[in-house]
Amino acid sequence: MFSNNATNAERQFVDSIEEWREEMGLNKFVLLGHSLGGYLSAAYALRYPQRVQHLILIDPWGFPERPPPGQASGRPRVPMWIRALVFLVQPFNPLALVRAAGPWGPSLIQKFRPDFKNRFKDVDDAILYDYIYHCNAQAPSGETAFRSLTESVGWAKYPMLMRIHEIEERVPITMIYGSRSWIDNETGWKVKDLRKDSFVDVHVVKGAGHHVYTERPDEFNRLVMQACDVSDKLAEEDAVGELPQFLEDDAVRPFQRTESTLTMRDDPPRVSVVLD
Q1: DSSP states along 43-105
Q2: How far out from the chain centre does Cα 145 lie?
Q3: Which residues contact 57 (CB under 8 A, 6 or more apart)?
Q4: pTM above the 0.85 mark?
Q5: Strand pairing category for 155-156 and 52-58
Q6: What is the block-wise mean pLDDT of the chain (276 residues), using blocks of 10 residues?
Q7: Strands lying side by side in the sheet with 29-34
């Protein structure tokens, strides 16, 4: 069971990743995390930087601080009715209603998330929603832990942006955002600014929302392959004790923003671990 304390719950998540790494016999690996998985991947890199060859964060949750009352947050404003609903259901886990629905669970998910049909057009609707339902109908251990990590409407109790500079400088970071996501990509540029002496590559994929990998899979794969190529180059240079020239260039390159353009590539990403 996960702890109700945010610090302890985060530690438990990180411990589980490290236990898996040991079981798999991996010495060093590329770690990719999406959403909450991005937050946990960064937390892992904080504790075990020597194990991370490249940290790839996809639309990561939990980075910015909660703004003071009355101050704009940089992300879309949450409607009042949703905030009121969140307040009422705070004592419960996020998907408690889905589990309580029993056999009507798949229909309930389809009603509230019809967008899934567009993202997985090649999958039969009944199979898709039945699969999603059963993935979330189990004991809510992950949900309980997530609730421990959050405060208010989805803000992290211990924002990663306040700690990202503590990750060892040699750990390269690639951050990939969807241009239409509810996650504020400003945090990516802030990370780049905070880690001026490290490799930080930020991409905003046009036309993609929070689930970049399903909405723009070709561009997502291209960017992940690119990040893996960077980590391979870094590993080669590190083996001979030299600072890679392109890393030196990146450290002094003028601070600028880039948006990904859509290109075609069929190669799958070379990633050791994916957390979502």
Answers
A1: HHHHH-GGGEEEEEEES-SS-SPPPPTTS--SSPPPPHHHHHHHHHHTTS-TTHHHHHTGGGH
A2: 16
A3: 32, 33, 38, 41, 42, 173, 174, 175, 176
A4: no
A5: unpaired
A6: 88 95 94 95 97 96 84 54 48 56 71 74 79 69 77 86 95 95 93 94 94 92 94 76 50 40 35 51
A7: 259-260, 200-205, 173-178, 52-58, 29-34, 273-275
